[in-house]
Structure formats: structure tokens, C-alpha cells
């Protein structure tokens, strides 16, 4: 009995030693990131809420699209209307300012990050920025692009989600009011410093995303100088550029990244909240998405890529007592232009690269 048992153990040992090791598989992690364009509140919007006694309830404007925003791992919004609070006066064009409740409503909608560098950042001066930053910090809202207390606004906001690190910048190429010195608004005036900051972030983190406020209003094509600026950002290490300020949607474009793979540029996100009656196309915006993918190869190599560009088009309604943003595909009851706008904007988005999905 003892001899037989010993032979059996020896056979089992050799069988284990000769077993073919299991092949390791690649491990893929994906992060969905979305961005929405300009948030602009005009006097008409405020009059509507005053008449209804619900100035604080801005959430009803975005409730129709909130479910879509909330599905993303990181959702960014371009907060063009400063939110310095009621103490600084509530107003629309040309010097904007909104109450703090707008921040609360957009967070309830599902936005994780507020991009705050734009041509209206200084509409209430440095004190207005201090008030807005104070409220963001008090409530735990994430923001990037402006700074208080002498801090540097060009510092990126760094997020770690699903073990993927993302550095976010919000920068403006335009200002309506001269920057004080030092500037509390991140801007492109020192191009070398801007590129150095981006290159530094690119070396430290997996992905770099820039919200860029730039260019001419209402024009669907970026200027030559705009293309040169964006090209320099990509060379410095930017993976995704979300462009704002034109108030109209511009094309999507894919570029070769010096890091390998693709860099994505959404030249214009349009208006997420912002109704300009003289230009129907300015009522169109969208939820612009990319998928950031990290592939851990079996051999230990780590591959990074930006994938699956898409946009879910939205429409900003301002009709009578209707002030809200809904999906463009659902906007026909509010605008005879909705079907035409969907076709025109879809074609424009695909005009430089047809691989973007539009719905």
C-alpha cells in the first residue's frame, strides 16, 4: 500500500510539472468622458423664472438630458456664465452672472467638472471669481480654469478614475476684460508656458484633455491661427480638445498624436444652454463623447488610446414659458427647423472625419 501510494504521488508531481501554463490575456479598462458646450443665461431666462417664482430651480432646464449625462464616468461642462452669486447681481448679456443655484442644478444634471476659463470669466472682476471659486470649494464641486487667492489657474485638474489618470485644462484665447496681473483666468497669452504645462502633464498622467475657448463666433470653420494653436497643443501632448465660444457646432477631426495613435479635436461644441433667436443654429449643442482605453498587455506593455467619438445632439428651447435643453431628435414640436438642423449639423460634424457617430 505504501509503495503504490508513493508511485501515485510521483506521477501526479510529473503531471503538474508538465502542465502547460495558462496563457495570460490582455486586460482592458475603458473610461467614458463627455463634454458639453457653452452655458449662457440671458435676461429672458431669468424673467421666466421670476414669473414662475422658481428662480432657484434651474434643474428643470436640463432634466430631459440628465440621464444621458449621468452615464459617463467624467462629464464636463463649459460654464461660460460666471456664478458669482446674487450678491454681485443677476444678469445676462453682455456681462453675465448667475446665482449659485445654477452650479447645484448642473451637478444634479450629472456634470462632474466645470470648465471656467472663457471670455466672460471676468464679467464680475477678480472678486466675482473669488466668490465663484469659494462656492465651488464649499460644495465640493470640481472646476478648472480660474483660481482664487493668488493660485495658478493654469494648474490642471487631475482625476483618477478606474486607475486611469486624466489631466484636465480649461484655457481661453479670448477675453472681454483685460486680465489683472497675475491673472486668475487660465489663458493662452504665454504659449510657451502653456505648452510646458501640457507637456509636463502628458509625461505624468495617462491622458490630457483641454477645454479651449477660442476663435470667431458663429463661424463653423476655425481660423488658420486657431489650427496652429491646436496643433501646438497636440504636439505638446494633448489627447482631446473640446472647443468652445463659436456658439455653433463645428467639425470633428482626428490627428496623428506624437505619442502614437490619435488625438481628437471637436472644433466647436455649440451651446448647451443658450438661445439666440436670430440664429437657429446657435440653439444646437450636444453631449460629445470619447472613450479613453488602457490596455494592459500580457507582456507588461501598457497601451493608451482615444476611441469611439460620438455626439448626442441637443437643442436649447426658449419659447414662451419653455426654457429647457432637450435632445434635437425630440425638438420638432418646438422648432420647425429641427429636422433640417439635425441633417445640417450631422453633415458638418462628419465633414472632416466621417467616423464620428451622431445621434
Described by strand count, sense and barrel closure, the largest sheet is:
9 strands, mixed
How far apart are the termini? 74 Å
| % residues in beta strands | 25-35%
Overall mean pLDDT score?
Answer: 91
Query: What's the shape?
Result: globular
Total beta-strand segments: 15
Structural category is alpha/beta
- Count of helical segments? 8
**Helix coverage percent of residues?**
25-40%
String of helices and strands: HEHHEHEHEEEHEHEEEEEEEHE
Enumerate the spans where pLDDT stays under 50 for 5 or more consecutive residues. 1-17
Rg from alpha-carbon coordinates:
24 Å
Fold and architecture overview:
The chain is of the alpha/beta class. Helix content is about 30%, strand content about 30%. The chain contains eight helices and 15 strands. It has helices at about 1-20, 45-50, 60-70, 100-110, 125-140, 190-205, 225-235, 340-350; strands at about 25-40, 75-80, 115, 140-145, 155-160, 165-170, 205-215, 240-245, 250-255, 260-265, 270-275, 285-295, 300-320, 320-325, 355-359. The strands form two sheets. Strands 1, 2, 3, 4, 11, 12, 13, 14 and 15 form a nine-stranded mixed β-sheet that branches. A six-stranded mixed β-sheet has the order 5-6-7-8-10-9, covered by helices on one side. The termini are far apart. The model is unreliable at about 1-15 (pLDDT under 50).
Helix and strand topology:
Elements (H helix, E strand, L loop, with lengths): L1 H17 L8 E13 L3 H10 L6 H11 L4 E5 L22 H9 L3 E3 L9 H15 L2 E3 L12 E5 L2 E9 L18 H14 L2 E7 L10 H13 L3 E5 L7 E5 L5 E5 L4 E3 L10 E13 L5 E18 L2 E6 L10 H12 L7 E2 L1
Parallel strand pairs: 1-2, 1-11, 2-3, 3-4, 6-7, 7-8, 8-10, 13-15
Antiparallel strand pairs: 1-12, 5-6, 9-10, 12-13, 13-14
